[in-house]
Design a protein that fits this description.
This protein has 136 residues and is an alpha+beta fold. 35% of the residues lie in helices and 40% in strands. The protein contains four helices and six strands, in the order αααββαββββ. It has a six-stranded mixed sheet with strand order 2-1-6-5-4-3. A hairpin with a 2-residue loop joins β3 and β4. α2 packs antiparallel against α3 and α3 crosses α4. The N terminus is likely disordered.
């Protein structure tokens, strides 16, 4: 273990911690029933969690759940899925994703998110970027 890793109190490579957090994140983003969405958001985000992307900047479970519900209203019949691997260090992880139509597999929206985790492994903040969006 390096001196830096000892100072941080844990190894810098904790792949399952990051993958688990991102799996809970996708569970929240793919929940469509109000109760399931609320539970998934609580499981994925801290109470004061913040979500910021080019279209939204919200904090707290209710705000995050509202953004997710809005995405499902805009894209009914779509699911979010990861693109590539989750990479992480310290309390930060990054990963790509796309929004895929269940009916035909088309993916009109794709992006890249960076998350900061709390001690309990839930997400404290998300910085989202949109790499592909439908033509207006």
């Amino acid at each position: 273990m390096t001196q830096h890793e000892q100072q941080a109190g844990r190894p810098s490579a904790e792949p399952s911690r990051y993958a688990d957090a991102v799996a809970r994140y996708f569970e929240a983003w793919n929940a469509t029933e109000e109760d399931a969405l609320g539970k998934a958001v609580v499981g994925a985000f801290t109470e004061e969690g913040r979500y910021t992307d080019p279209l939204a900047d919200v904090a707290g479970h209710e705000g995050i759940a509202a953004v997710i519900a809005g995405a499902h209203e805009q894209f009914p019949g779509f699911v979010f899925r990861p693109l590539g691997d989750v990479e992480g260090h310290h309390d930060i992880a990054r990963f790509g994703w796309e929004l895929v139509a269940v009916a035909d597999g088309s993916a009109p929206v794709a992006g890249f998110d960076v998350v900061r985790l709390a001690e309990d492994g839930r997400i404290r903040s998300v910085l989202g970027f949109l790499d592909r969006v439908p033509a207006a």
